[in-house]
Amino acid sequence: MTSTIGQSRTPGARAEQQAPRLSDEQAGHIRHVDNLSRLPRGDWRHMAGPLPFQEDFNSYRYQLGYMSLAMALAHYHQLPAAPAVFKGQLDRLIQKMLEPDAWSYWRDTSTQGGYGPFTLPRLPSRTDPVAVDNIMYSAYLQVMTLAYTMLFDDRKYEQSGSLSFSMRPVLWGKDRHERFEYDQRSLNERIYWNMVENGYLGVACEPFCVFQICNQVPILGFRLHDHLYGGEIAEEVTQGYVAAWERFGGSVNANGHFNSYVMQRNELQPDDMLFDRDLAWTDGWLGMLMNMWRPELVRTAYDNSMERWLDRRADGLISIRDLSRMPGSEDLVSPGTLGEMGWLAAWASEMGDREVVDGLLGHADRYMNPQWENGGLYYPRRDESYDEDGNFVAVPPVVSNATFPYARLNVADGLRTLFERPWSDRERSRPALTEIGESVDVRRAWYHKEARRLQLAVSPMHGLSSATTDLALSRVWDRGEWTLTLDGVAVARGDNSTVTATDDGRRLQLRRTDDELRLSLDVRGHLDVEMSWS
User: Does 377 score more than 80 pLDDT?
Assistant: First the structure.
């Protein structure tokens, strides 16, 4: 028999010390990403964009990269004592990133030939997606694996060949197979030397085109690598980066917006050429990332430029302006289809501007048709910019799956804090929730070191009124006498060797193992679970 204690009683007397509880929407974003991570190979539902060949910002690499970063930040800031929620999910996203669907575009893109209105030299086709250039893929995989190791101390991606790219279509025949093997350290080294060999300006995305945005990502990767393995690569690269971009006036242009990219000299172009057009997606995307290591510059850019992109309404809702009608923007694609609203929301979240974040997400919740599926919250893809009433409604998949979750789950200076203070054994050795059933959402998961309390809150996933689940609480032994409460009511007590149910917990299933305390619960509504040590 399992416990049927629900939320009919008030929390304990120390409720003022309660960690924040996730909202329905925050929990829904986590569930939606988890649902996507569990889809079988070849099933990219809710992720397919309007362009083929993985050419735009809805490409799987960007969605997977920012879904992973959003979940890493959610674990770090919102649910630090719940590796059960995130470890398997982030591992599955890495596995999807290794699918040819996410990287095989490089065989054609590596030949270049043209970028927008420009003509560039043709190059030989390359299949290996991380050896040279293609930082728009390699850096995301770099960060995904290093963040996974940092958060969970799981060293699987240190193993030789653990990051493998295998290309073997059936119709190639038996004898043709292209395979390239790396691990997270050799991948980091390859990206580093690409950066050095290009004078620290950055590694090209497409050949000859060095974007500021994608080169923020390996800076985070270098920082995590330094933290895990020692060294000062991140400091070296950032110093070189600043000096290299000074050739082009720095990272910000005369209008206070971020420079986008440099097209490097080649046989058809004698000199490097800066592309410094004012763009909403460049400002939002670059600002949300660069804040981790250049916060003063980014804050100034935010204060100077953010309002240009916002369309504020009297009711407090915010969308983006019709960028196609702004001066100098005649050749832009339809407003919103580059994910501008999501990038700007994510940047505002990093700046701690909750007014803008809430205004943008409030507009999305009213006009962008939020849906719930298998307990997850998403916004269906919509390619047109405006509805029949003139409301902004464009929803590219990257916005629904990655940048809206990022904005809703992030905190002020969230990425900057992770960059400056990655987790070590100290954080990973604390009591934590390490197992939970799939029908339950975790709303709170904190260990308060000074108070010696593990606080959890769970609820049935969206759409269910009740759910039965097993929980595993790890690293709870050898800390002295303890008390377990459900909604403030003591249901069990014990010490390093004993577990005893109280009268209120006599129907509660409890089991002690060498590593864990395991519980079986019937969850009805929100249920607070607390384990405290005297």
Answer: yes
